[in-house]
Backbone:
């Protein structure tokens, strides 16, 4: 009898990495993937230092959980001395008009970046760039939430939740939380949060945040987005990768995550335009 046999769960970790992780905090979301449902089981909003980030990842890998892969919002491969990486140029070409272009990553600006150190530390632990889902190797991927959200929700432009006045950032986070809540109805990859993490999508909680608490909440939401992008990576045989593993790459999921476009998306765009004035 197999009716009572639970499907094996795999774990996906989303990392919103601070550029200077020794000074600024990063956020890490740990999620459990069973069939086509991704549950956020743990979120660390304030992880400081590369060693602590790696230790937390190791902790989950050593706890008996099968970590399938890690999706990281940071430049994992940087070989260019100046200018932008080719993948950043390609992203800007595709999404720049929708206000989701890339900043430049190069060895002049970042001669010894923690993001590359993290990628090397993970490689030493058996994680491979863009390793196919289902292979023996665990994977790691570089992701970029802005174009991913555009694709997932068919947004006309980048969702504003990172810059501006405090009220603008709060409103942007509320909008992002509303989008993430909508994913609970996705037929391709449903998103749920464990009881102790549901406050992260709560409007009242977001609107009460200020200062560092508001920034850390933003990082936590980004880490959830990263984990969800990682879950989509395991499903999509046609992967949209800008660049390559030699010179740097960025993975962007293809197509909407919802069967129907959310009816308030166009109103959201008008609202953002009002805020920018």
Residues:
């Amino acid at each position: 009898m197999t009716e009572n046999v639970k499907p094996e769960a795999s774990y996906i970790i989303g990392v919103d990495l601070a550029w200077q992780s020794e000074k600024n905090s990063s956020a890490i979301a740990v999620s459990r993937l069973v069939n086509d449902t991704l549950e956020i089981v743990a979120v660390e909003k304030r992880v400081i230092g590369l060693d602590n980030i790696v230790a937390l990842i190791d902790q989950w890998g050593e706890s008996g959980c099968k970590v399938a892969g890690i999706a990281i919002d940071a430049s994992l491969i940087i070989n260019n001395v100046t200018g932008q990486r080719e993948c950043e140029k390609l992203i800007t070409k595709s999404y720049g008009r929708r206000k989701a272009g890339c900043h430049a990553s190069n060895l002049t600006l970042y001669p010894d970046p923690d993001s590359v150190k993290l990628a090397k530390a993970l490689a030493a632990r058996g994680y491979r760039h863009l390793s196919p889902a289902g292979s023996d190797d665990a994977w790691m991927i570089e992701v970029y939430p802005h174009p991913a959200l555009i694709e997932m929700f068919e947004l006309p432009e980048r969702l504003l939740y990172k810059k501006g006045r405090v009220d603008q950032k709060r409103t942007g986070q509320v909008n992002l939380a509303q989008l993430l809540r909508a994913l609970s109805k996705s037929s391709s990859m449903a998103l749920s949060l464990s009881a102790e993490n549901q406050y992260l999508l709560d409007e009242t909680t977001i609107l009460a945040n200020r200062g560092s608490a508001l920034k850390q909440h933003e990082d936590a939401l980004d880490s959830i987005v990263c984990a969800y992008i990682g879950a989509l990576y395991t499903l999509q045989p046609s992967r949209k990768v800008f660049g390559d593993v030699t010179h740097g790459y960025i993975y962007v999921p293809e197509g909407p995550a919802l069967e129907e476009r959310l009816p308030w998306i166009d109103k959201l765009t008008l609202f953002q335009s009002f805020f920018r004035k």
About this structure: Residues 104 and 257 are 29 Å apart (CA to CA). The chain has one domain: 10-276. Strands lie at 10-16, 25-34, 37-48, 67-73, 127-129, 138-142, 190-193, 240-244, 248-252. Confidence is low (pLDDT under 50) at residues 1-6.
